[in-house]
């Protein structure tokens, strides 16, 4: 028998596998550098806004990039006392009430479209999703006339109804996509145990949909807290205005007192920063699982 010569191919292949993939390493570092640059681009304007609130207007114009000399909260107190507290309260009232209505109606509609086997559910779904293509500027005039006709112009109730109607299609779309991932066997098991549709919705579906409800809630809060065109057109009285519109009047009232204006902007942005810091885990999970369908 001929002596068998050792086959070096497997060894060469193993050595090739052990070689570092320089292309993937470079790509990984480039992605990290890009993320760092993007983080700086997002965080530095916030840092500059909050730091400018501790300066005087003269210090801002003399050296806008310098750090404040003292950490005095006097500008925040001035901003709070000169009207921000009223605008803040209005934004909280409108955001909280409209958020609760939007999530309740959105979850109920998504449950009906996915788990109740209703006739024409697909047609209704496409009609609802058509609302995603509506631009706010296109409906300002008809909504203005409608609110005046029904007596809801220049009221918080009218603005809440507009917010709910405008954001409901997206909320239904997001929650419906998540509910499609839920097994129908869970619903059938609850129905066999004697639960009706309302009990299944409240005791089974809602607990399972906490991640997507958190995601939809954060997206909605970001919209309602920063919304400007609807609040500008549909609210006229100063006592009823929300933070974005109120800060516009706040600026004209203060004229050149930019340090107090920056303090007001900081107060307005702080709730959103806290909300996303607390709910970011549920936000990412709900979006990633919900958008998968």
TrEMBL record:
Query: What residue intervals traverse the membrane?
Result: 29-50, 84-112, 124-144, 156-179, 200-225, 258-278
Task: Show where the ABC transmembrane type-1 domain sits.
Answer: 88-279
Query: How does the record say this protein sits in the membrane?
Result: Multi-pass membrane protein
Name the domain of life: Bacteria
Return the InterPro entries for the record: MetI-like, MetI-like_sf
Could you say which residues form the signal peptide? Answer: none
Entry-linked SUPFAM superfamilies? MetI-like
The UniProt entry lists the main location of this chain as membrane
Database matches in PROSITE patterns: ABC_TM1
Report the subcellular localization.
Cell membrane
Q: Which UniProt keywords apply?
A: Cell membrane, Membrane, Transmembrane, Transmembrane helix, Transport
Q: Output the PANTHER family linked to this UniProt entry.
A: ABC TRANSPORTER PERMEASE PROTEIN MG189-RELATED-RELATED, SN-GLYCEROL-3-PHOSPHATE TRANSPORT SYSTEM PERMEASE PROTEIN UGPE
Its family remark reads: Belongs to the binding-protein-dependent transport system permease family.
Supply the name of the protein: Carbohydrate ABC transporter permease
Q: What species does this protein belong to?
A: Arthrobacter vasquezii
């Amino acid at each position: 028998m001929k002596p068998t010569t050792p086959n070096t191919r497997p060894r060469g292949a193993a050595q090739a596998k052990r070689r570092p993939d320089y292309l993937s390493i470079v790509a990984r570092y480039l992605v990290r550098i890009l993320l760092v640059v993007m983080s700086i681009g997002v965080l530095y304007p916030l840092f500059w806004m909050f730091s400018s609130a501790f300066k005087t207007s003269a210090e801002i114009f003399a050296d806008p990039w310098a750090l404040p000399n003292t950490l005095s909260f006097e500008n925040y107190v001035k901003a709070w006392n000169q009207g921000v507290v009223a605008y803040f309260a209005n934004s909280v009232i409108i955001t909280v009430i409209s958020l609760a209505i939007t999530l309740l109606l959105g979850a109920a509609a998504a449950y009906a479209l996915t788990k109740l086997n209703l006739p024409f559910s697909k047609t209704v779904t496409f009609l609802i999703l058509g609302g995603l293509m509506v631009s706010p500027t296109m409906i300002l005039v008809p909504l203005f006339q409608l609110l005046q006709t029904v007596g809801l112009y220049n009221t918080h109730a009218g603005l809440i109804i507009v917010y709910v109607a405008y954001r409901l299609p997206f909320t239904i779309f997001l929650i419906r996509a998540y509910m499609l991932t839920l097994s129908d066997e869970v619903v059938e098991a609850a129905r066999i145990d004697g639960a009706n549709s309302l009990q299944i919705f409240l005791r089974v579906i809602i607990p399972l949909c906490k991640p997507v409800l958190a995601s939809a809630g954060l997206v909605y809060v970001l919209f309602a807290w920063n919304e400007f065109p609807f609040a500008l057109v549909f609210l006229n009285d100063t006592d009823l205005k929300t933070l974005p519109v109120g800060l516009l009047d706040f600026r004209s009232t203060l004229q050149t007192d930019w340090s107090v204006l920056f303090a007001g902007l900081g107060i307005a942005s702080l709730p959103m920063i806290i909300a996303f810091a607390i709910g970011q885990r549920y936000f990412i999970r709900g979006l990633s699982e919900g958008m998968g369908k």
